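Example record used in the benchmark description.
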Amino acid sequence: MSDVYIPGVKSRFNTENLVEGLMRVERIPRERVGKDIENLQIQKTYWQELGRRMSALRESARSFVSFQNPFNDRIVASGDESILVGTATREAVEQTRSFTVKQTAQADRFLSQPLEEGFKVEAGNYVFTVGKDEVSFNFRGGTLREFADALNRRSRDKIQASVITIQKGSKSLLIESKVTGAENRLSFSRNAENLPLSTGKVERPQDSRRNIAITSENVTTDGQSAEVLEDTVTIYAGGQAAIPLTPAVQTAPGLVFTFEAATKVFPEQDSPLPRPSADISIPEPDAPEEGDLAVETEAPETGASLAAELPSPSLPLRVDDLEVITLQFTDGSSARVPALQDSETFHPYRFPLPELTGGKIIASIDFINQNTHRDVSIRNIMVFDPGAEEGARTENAASAAQGSLRTENPVPIVQGGFLAGNAISTAQDAVISMEGIEISRDTNTIDDLVPGVTLTVKAPSERPVKLEVLPDREGVKEAIISLVGNYNRLMAEVNVLTRIDDRIVQELSYLSPEEQEEMRKKLGVFAGESSLVQFKAALQQTVTGSYLTFLERDLTMLPQIGISTDARKAGATTGYDPSRLRGYLEIDEKVLDAALESRMPAIQQLFGYDTDGDLIIDSGVAYMLDQLAKPYVETGGVITLKTGVIDSRIAQDNRRIETMDRQLAAKEASLKNQYAQMEGAYNRMEQMSTSLDQFSQRANNNNR
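Model output (C-alpha cells):
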C-alpha cells in the first residue's frame, strides 16, 4: 500500500528520506574524524595505563633505596606468644633477651551479689576514683541498668559498668576500672560507699594501714640540713629531719614497713661539710681552788700540737653511715632500720614491721644523716598488710626478714577508704624479669625497657620466654615479590602494545578471560613506537646486569638469589619455550629464602648501594629501575609528552568536527529548502493543471 499523501503534512516526494540519504554521504568525512578522536582517546588511555605500570614499578624500586627500605625493618619473635609478644621499630638492635612474666597488670573489677530484678539504686551523689582521676555525678534514682548507663556516660573511659544476669530472675552489677596498675585502685565515695556495701562489692579496710605523708607541714627540719620537695624529703650530709606520727603507728603481725630511697655521693674533694681547721686553740684549764680534788694529769696539749695530730685539710675526715632511718617508740627507746644501698635512682625497700619494732608503738620516724659525702632522699613511706592489700601476691618471708632489697612497687593506700571485697580482679602492676632484672609497670604494654621494642605481657609464666629482635625477612621477601610482580606486569603491557601476536596474551595465564579480551584489543597498538622498544630493551638489561656489592663481592646478580628470566633447575625441562624469552622474571623461593637467611646485608647492597660514600644510593637493581622509569613518569616526561600530543590532535580534530558540523547543517538546510521549493512549484503546476481541466470541462458543458 502506497503512502497516503496529506497536503501540508507529508511530503509528496518523501523529501526527508531524500535529504537524509544525501546527508549521510556528506557526513562520512565527519564520522571519519570522530573515529580518529575515539582511537586517539583509546591510545591516550593506553599511555596512561602504561604510565601507571611504570609508576608502580618505580615506587616498588624506590622503596628499596629510600630511608624506609624494608631491610631496616625489625620484628620480634617470641618463644611463646601466649605469654609475651613484642613489636620493634627500625631503631631496634638485633638481640636476644630472656623474660619471665611473674604477673600481668590488672585493673579492679567488682561484681555484686545477685540482686532482685526490681532492685533500685537510691538517688544521690556518686563519686568513684581511679588513681588520681575522679568521676562524680548526681543520680536521681532508678534501676541497675539506668545507674550503669549514667555511670558509663560520665566515666570518661576510666570506669565501665555492666548489668549481668548470672542467675535467672536476678541481676548483678559489674563495675570495673579501665586503667591497670597498683596505683590505679578503684575506690568509692559519697553515696557510692553505700552502693558497694549493700551489693557486696567492697568492704572497709583495716585501720592498721598508714600512708606516711611527706609534706613541709609534718616534716620537722631546720630548713638548712634537709628539704621537702614533691613528696620527697632530702637529708643533706650531716643533716637531720623527723616525721612525728599522729596517731602513733601500732605494730601488728603481717605489717610491713616500705619506702623508696636514693643517694647522691659526692667526690672526696667535694664534701659539703666544713673541714677541721689547723688554727685550733684550746684554752688552758683553770688552776684548782683550795678544797677541790686535785688530779694530777699530763700537761694539756696546746692548740698547735692538737692541730698537728689532726688530718691535713687535703685529707678530710670521711664518715660513711647508711643506717639513716631510726624509729622512735613511745616508751623512749628507738631502733635503726637496716642500712641502705647507694643508688642514684630510687629503689624500694620492704621490712617486716614486727621485727623492726619488737611490738612497740612508733611515735616518729627520724632521719639522721651522719655521712660527710652523701645526701639521702626518702619518699613513699608506707605501713600496710600485703595480704589485705594485694590479695594474690605472697610475701617472701626469708628475704623480708633480712631486709633485702625488693623490686616490686608497694601497694598504695586506696583513696576513699574502701577495698575490694568481692573482686573479680584486683589492681596490680605487671611484674617481669629480664635476665634476672625484675621490673614492674602499671600496664601490660611496656615500651621503655628495651630500646625500640614494645613488649605486651599476656599471661604469667614459670619458665623464661625468649624474645629475638630480627630483621623482617618476610617483609623484605614481600617487597621483592611486589617488585618482580610490577616488573612483569609492565613487561607484559609493553609486549602486548608493541607486538601483534595472540600467543603473548595466551601466555598471561594469571589474567581472567575478560582481562585477556581487553589485552587483545591492545595488541600492536604501538607497534611502531621506537621509544617503547628501547625501554623494553633497557628494562631487560637492568634486571640481568651485574652490580657491585661491598660486603660480598661474589654476589652481583639477581639470579644468585633465585630471581631470573628462567628459574628452572638444570634438567627440569627441555625444549624451546618462547614465553621464557619475553623478559619476564621468575622467583625460586627456596633459593631466595636461603639467601635472605644468610646474605641479607649483601642483598640490600645488590638492590641499592652507595658506592662513593656520600650517603646517597647510586647503584643497584632497584636504583637503576627507578632511574629508568623516572624520565617516563615524571612531570613533563615521555608519558606526559605522548598524552599531550594526543590531546593536541584531539583538540584539532574537535575543531574540524565543529567546522564540519556547521557545514553539514548549512548543507542540510539548503537541500531542504531546494526540495521545498521544488515541491511548491510542483504543487502550483498541479493546481494550474486542475484549473485548466475545470475550465475545459465547463467550456464543453456550455457548448452542449
